[in-house]
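FORM 7B: Structural annotation worksheet

SECTION A. Query
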Amino acid sequence: MDAPEIRYAKSGEVHVAYQVVGDGPLDLIYGLPSITHLAVWWEEPQYTKFWLDVSSFARVILFDKRGVGLSDRDVGIPTLEERMDDFRAVMDAEGSRKAVLVGVSESAAMSILFAAAHPERTLGLILVGGSARELYAPDYPWGYTLEDSEKEIRKFQDEWGKPSLTDGWAAGIAPSKANDPEFKRWWARLVTFGGSPSSASALIRMNREIDVRSVLPTIHVPTLVLAGRSGTDIEQGKYIAERIPGAQFVELSARDHYFVVDPEGTRAVIHSIRDFMKQVSPDMTSVPQPLESERVLTTVLFTDIVESTRRATELGDLAWSKLLNEYQEKARTDLARYKGRLIKSTGDGLLAIFDGPTRAVRCACALRDEARTLGLETRAGLHSGECLLREGDVEGIAVHIAARVNELAEDGDVLVSGTVRDLSAGSEVKFVDRGMHTLKGVAGEWRTFAVENT
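SECTION B. Predicted structure
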């Protein structure tokens, strides 16, 4: 069949290309893997059949991530939260209030973040061949080493569009098609149309920096993890499923990372998706109402003014009150700009929350710079973690951690926890390691990072 029409959703100033297949009662937002091109995907018969089969019981929404395919290309390296915004923009464009998210391969990370930060928009989460981290760590032995990662990226740059790249990549993601010339020609066309050598390499490098392991325990929506027998998919899938509360894990017999090219793998995935959607909505029509209070992944920001008592004494009550009001007005403007939510003012500081860490960091830097125009110095502490939002307030251990990080901050610092740093991949924000710390009232040791002044 011909590819469905291309539509566009506006995510900030970026146009995100998407397609809608079918008109089923429940929505399924499908996060495509790696370098994509919506029109070229439909040239592969197995993918066409897969999406048509799924669309028999769901409205399927596909989209090219910003920076690739038919979406706006010249957008820099996207952060996880910008990609998360694109999920929301596409849903809003189609009037989708709540949907099952499918994150395939590297799209798993942005699906995980969205489900944790926006459970009110997430009916369920399905992860296929995904990982929580792509680089090796002592406690994560399945990832690439930095040396191997850079070697592979250089190979992409040198061989982009050449048969040698197609041979190697096809063998890695779809071994059952390694000797299929038609599939390899299609794959070469897909990646060539999807991105340039430089943009693809930059995106791959950004994906290698992602680490959403700390987010997994904060997911409280029904979750299904599917993994085939390609490379380390099984181990990484089990790692994810063991850390998401109540997650189901299904091992597929398919040996292809891109399971759809294997008819047996396709049937297994379609069966698993249909059964999962029946679990989250038994009649396959009703969408559960969001809870009045939600546990969500939130980035918490505390700021305060350095030596505020001394400055108030020097200026006197009236002048200090006027200066403080001026700063707070600038702070409200910056919070709106970076989509933050003011929870409370704390005399000479504030407590605010954000649905993404990079926006929170940039807002903290803006608040510091605004204060300096008024002759004030601030410090800020940030942490991303699970919080309970209720009746205009925010509760949870993440709030306490952010407060303790703020206490460690030096004059002029924007100090963040390691979690914030890990979730800021692609942001171009530079961090300086401030070492390990014991936080009062919080178990364990915590690594902190200061935002490098620019």
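SECTION C. Observations
Residues 7-280 form a domain with the Rossmann fold fold (CATH 3.40.50.1820). The chain has two domains: 7-280, 294-451.

SECTION D. Sign-off
Analyst initials: ____
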